[in-house]
Amino acid sequence: MQLSSVATFKMVALVIGFMSMVLPAQGEVNKSESADRVAIVNGTPIDRVEFEGNVLAIQKNLLEFGKPLTCKQVTTIRTEVLESMVRVELLYQESRKSGIKPDAKVVEQEMKALKQQSPNETEYKNELKRRNISEEMLRSRIEKNSSVQQYIERQFTAKTTVTGDEMLSYYGGHLDVFKQPLQVRVSHILIQSDPQWDAAHKQEARRKAEQILNELKKGHDFAALARERSDGPTRTSGGDLGYIRMGQLEKQLDSVVFGLKSGEISEVIDTDHGFHVFKVVDIKPETILAYDSVKDKIRQYLVQEKAKQAADLYAKSLREKAVVDVLLPEESNSNTAKRP
After folding, report:
1. What is the DSSP string of 114-155?
2. What CATH number does the domain located at 182-285 have?
3. Which of 2, 103, 135, 280 sits most deeply, having the most CB atoms within 10 A of its CB?
4. Which fold is adopted by the domain 5-164+297-332?
5. Is the pTM of this model over 0.70?
């Protein structure tokens, strides 16, 4: 199904929403090194490369639907991304007027989290270089987002309430969100092997696994055998993997485990990691989480949504009064008027 312009707009609003603005600033460059701007907001420039990076991120999210975007949809995305960046800049300017400063602890946590996405310091620096952004500029971006989020929290979130009826209405209208998928509690015995082993070595590993399976079929205790003879990491807990959902195991193992009944033991399963035997200990069927168990999360979500909408409306009112010079080509900016 091809995305409509309405669906595109909703997805753009979701991705660039005010309550989730902390981004790793894809493709951003030092402003002192770039004279290429897409807008000037009360004298403050918005960098073109940062803008194009944000547009690209939105397009990647939308393309996950599996259909190419039309020219009209791309234009809508570019217009909405620019307007979002303008409104964020205006909220940042308001935060500075209010004396808000970045939360140093939060900034450090964000910087640390981004570093941890790379395996080592060298790869981290290479990633920054690839994105054409300095660490100082990345930090500046996160500091700006921290100030804006604090401003929204103080001016909107802290003053927002939701009623019990609103929460119940959301719960009833979004039951699919609160589905608890089928879960099975399984125990696991592994006899390791390696694809590089010769046939005789592999056959010996299989023989051990089949011997264990025969003993299980005769009534031997699964946990005891796992502790004594499993090569798997769960051997100390008697092979207990706890409750798992579909997709947490390899597909080959998933198809077997989720086809077993409670108390049933699998045949020996051969994978690149070795020979596996599973036992299903318990099954929790798919269910819908009770309202009382999720109402606090619903309240938090609705408060954030209301605050985000209020912040957006306020930012739009600031936009009407601001001096904003939009520098995008006319074909990418047909819905974005310049304001004196």
Report:
1. HHTTSSSHHHHHHHHHHTT--HHHHHHHHHHHHHHHHHHHHH
2. 3.10.50.40
3. 280
4. Triger factor/SurA peptide-binding fold (1.10.4030)
5. no
